Amino acid sequence: MDNFEFVSPTRFIFGRGVENQAGVKLAERGAKKALLHYGGKSAIRSGLIDRVKASLDAAGVGYVELGGVRPNPEIGLVREGVALCKQQGVDWILAVGGGSVIDSAKGIALGAFYDGDVWDFFAEGKPAGEVLPIACVLTIPAAGSEASMNTVVSNDELQRKAGYGSDAIRPELAFMNPEITFTLPAYQTAAGATDMFAHLLERFFDETPAVPVTDNLNLSLMRTVRAEAPRVLAEPENYDARANIMWAGMLCHQGYAGCGRHEDWATHGLEHELSALNPAITHGAGLAVMFPAWMTYVHKENPERFAFYGREVFGLAPTGDADDDALNAIDATRSFFASLGMPTTLAELDVREDDIEKMIPTLQENQGGEFGSFKRLTMDDARAIYRLAL
Ligand code: NZQ
Ligand code: ZN
Fold this sequence. Notes:
alpha/beta; 15 helices; single chain; binds zinc ion; binds 5,6-dihydroxy-NADP
């Protein structure tokens, strides 16, 4: 088992109606003026923003609003949020939305006490200084940003999407009401389930030998996502199915499922270039295409690990040949994502062969050379994996 340091400071408030406690919980923590940060239309249309505002009003917590976060959030709005927090003396950020809104909030939190351009954190990996505390009302189980140490922000001008990680930006409060996710379109539900499954795959495949305590936790979550994702798609208003997938989404990415492992993260790196190239590409859909391609490319490094995964998650019978077992496990993964309605090729995402070279320079910049852990990948390997995904 590798050495590790892990902290998960988030307080989870889970269940029906919990968003109505946002005001009280912020007031208890001394919040005077929050930045209420949200996305496009969904949270306004559903009445969620009004309920959250009423809860802040009732608890005497003031707020300023900044809506309009798009999927694959952009640095421009983060900069606006930073300026607003500085002007208005904001002391807490309350993000109402999914990974994009929470990530945008994390960017704002990083920039709020910083004199330079907040993009510096993403471009240079600058250590976090003082940050604003973050609370979130989660509306889509997917990215796991409600408890993770990460934020991922796009810079359209540079055509770059860059991640940043620090325990300082883990949310302090996460309000998770599964009923809020009833309104999710099927595609977003499926992309969310794919993303959370991918967060487990990134942690399961690395060069560290078995870590049973972590592996068993991870495999149990994979089996849960595999069982619950079709259930939420078939019955979008099934509270228990939505609740299981929502809690799973958090557990998949807050960190427990990788403790003691090195983790891989090459496929997320490859996907982030797709959504930098075209912000209309949904992160989970990009992963559905890239994961089977990555698996196909790297499985020979350790086919037994793939065979083990296939047996444990998909119940595949051993064939007597580890390589065949590995390929069967990869097929099962691709079929699982396809069964949820996810794409299986880059062509379905409108990405063509001549786009590959456009992504390589920023991939190189983001990864700083070789990347991944299960197999160390060069830029030529990346080109080959993108080609396999075409
Ligand atoms: O903007 P609105 O109108 O709210 O619509 C959103 C958006 O179009 C919609 N939606 C959200 N909740 C809804 C809803 N529609 C109806 N009912 C609801 N209850 O769903 C769409 C997608 O939302 P978004 O926040 O973009 O989804 P997700 O949570 O998948 O976040 C994706 C972002 O997270 C990053 C991704 O790269 C991407 O930028 N990631 C962040 C990570 C982290 N911070 O730890 C890790 C991940 O690997 C990932 O990279
Ligand atoms: Zn992800």
